[in-house]
Every structure is written in C-alpha cells, then in structure tokens.
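Propose amino acids for all 308 sites.
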C-alpha cells in the first residue's frame, strides 16, 4: 500500500486504513474486540473506528469524534494545516482537506441477508453528500459527507468479539445530493406546545427518515468497497482497482426528463480476480412500495367479545 502521506484524497486514505484494519491480505475478516455498550446512545464501534483512524492515518491527518450523542456526522477527518486559513467555499469540496463521516452499523437476519436492506432508518438527519459542521468560532462550515456502512457479526463463543462481513465507504451523494433539503431538516423547527387535555404536552415535530441501504445491493454485500465520485482514483492509487459503476436516476419532474449521477466502485487490487468483469448498475437499491399514509400503531388485541 502506498504511504498514506502520499494519498491526497481523504476518503481513499480512510478506506485503505479500514480495509487493512478489518481484513487480512486475502480479504478474510479480522476479529476485533469492543467494550460493552453503556447506554442506548453509546456506540463502541464508532469509538473503535475513531481510535483506528487516530492510530493508522498518516501524520498530518487528524480524526475528530463528535462531542456527544445525537450529533452528526460521527467523525471528521481533516488535514488541519490545509483547513486553517482556507476559504469556506474551497473546503466545501476539497476532499484533500476535510470530510465528514457518518457510521452505519447493521446486522444480518436469521436467513443471512443484511438487515433493513430495502430501507435504512436515518432518524432525524437525512444523508447528504454535503454536511454542516461548525468551526472554533461556532460558525457554520459545509463540507463533503461520506458514509461508512458495515455489517457487524458476533464471533461465536467469544463475548464482545466481532468481525465484519461487508463494508462500504460511500460518497453521501450516492444516497442524496439535495443539500437544501438536508438543511431544511437539520435546522430548528417549531414545536407544538400546549397540547393535551391539560395543556402540558408538546409535539417536537420530529421527522423520521428512511433512505437506501447500499449493503442491500448484492454486488456490495460480502465485499469491501469504496464508492466515489472520481473515476480516476486507480491511476493515483495502484493498490485500488475500479470494479464497477453505480448510476442513479435523478427525476426532473418540471421538464419531464431525467438525468443520471454516476459513482465509481473500487476495491483492493490484490483481492480481485484478473478475470473480473466490471459491473454497471442502474438504480440497484431495493426499495419497497410505499404509500403516503403512515402505518397505524400496533393493535393490542384481547380474547374477549363485549356486546354492543
């Protein structure tokens, strides 16, 4: 693997660090240990990834963890010497300077499929290829957003030990590129106050969002993949090999037409058969049929039959 100091693209540097930490040279998963989970919002895996980056990324690359729960993104990877003094406009797209990273950890169903393959809960923050963070003066700074999806499985008979059976690090624009929508959700909202018979209730007007799950795509499951907007990364990093593309249709309702956004998939060169045929996927994400109506709360049924 090339020295990480020579890797200008931060997502690529992060991907190679993850690949070496969680998988051996043959691509087999490495076993790792996590501490016990302390509470609902506590996430030992996020902490593990932060430590991993802090130890494995090259000198000059820093990794900062969110200061508390319910803050997105989970991590920021940056070159401080590039960021200090740079214009906000340049940092919004400079993948060699700073990126945000959100971590999504999944499990497998009893049948072996990745859980929530047809739609993943993103809670109150929509995924996006641009995310908003804040500088030391608490001023907003918009940076590129990437998402790490892993399928984490327990190791039998070894408490607190796990291994990954799938990993995808992807450009957030693969999931959603509408930054204005992102801002409309993450900004402040008005609560409904004074509700209920005693007027002491409140409705937080809190959205719950569902977007696609990349590990629901068969070509990404059981693999270790970087999904990037650049199609030329393999020329800069010969340890990576271009293995396929994913195109997403962008509807343009007002014009009655559509366009496509194309993303490029890379894997570690040493684990790809020479005869590999690059895949070309168009809208491969499984999405269930949906209606505008929300599902009613579950019904508590009793085995009784009162009269009318």
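Proposal:
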């Amino acid at each position: 693997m090339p020295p990480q100091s020579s890797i200008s693209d931060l997502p690529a540097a992060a991907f190679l660090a993850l690949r070496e930490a969680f998988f051996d040279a043959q691509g087999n998963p490495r076993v790792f240990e996590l501490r016990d989970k302390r509470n609902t919002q506590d996430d030992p895996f996020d902490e593990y990834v932060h430590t991993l980056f802090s130890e494995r990324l090259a000198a000059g690359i820093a990794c900062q963890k969110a200061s508390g729960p319910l803050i997105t993104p989970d991590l920021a990877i940056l070159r401080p010497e590039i960021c200090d003094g740079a214009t906000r406009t340049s940092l919004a797209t400079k993948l060699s300077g700073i990126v945000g990273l959100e971590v999504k950890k999944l499990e497998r169903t009893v049948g072996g499929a990745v859980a929530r393959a047809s739609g993943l809960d993103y809670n109150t923050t929509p995924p996006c290829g641009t995310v908003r963070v804040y500088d030391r003066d608490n001023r907003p700074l918009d940076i590129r957003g990437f998402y790490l999806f892993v399928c984490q499985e327990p190791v039998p008979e070894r408490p607190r030990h796990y291994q990954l059976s799938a990993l995808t690090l992807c450009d957030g624009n693969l999931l959603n590129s509408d930054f204005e929508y992102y801002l409309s959700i993450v900004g402040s909202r008005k609560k409904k106050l004074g509700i209920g018979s005693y007027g002491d209730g409140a409705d937080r007007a809190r959205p719950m969002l569902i977007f696609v799950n990349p590990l629901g795509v068969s070509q990404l499951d059981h693999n270790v993949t970087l999904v990037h907007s650049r199609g030329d990364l393999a020329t800069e990093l010969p340890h990576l090999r271009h293995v396929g593309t994913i195109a997403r249709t962008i509807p343009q309702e007002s014009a009655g037409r559509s366009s496509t956004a194309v993303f490029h998939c890379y894997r570690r060169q040493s684990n790809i058969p020479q005869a590999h045929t690059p895949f070309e996927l168009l809208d491969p994400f499984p999405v269930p049929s949906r209606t505008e109506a929300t599902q009613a709360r579950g019904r508590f049924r009793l085995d009784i039959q009162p009269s009318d």
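The chain is about 15% helix and 30% strand. Helices lie at 10-22, 44-56, 80-83, 88-91, 179-186, 233-236.
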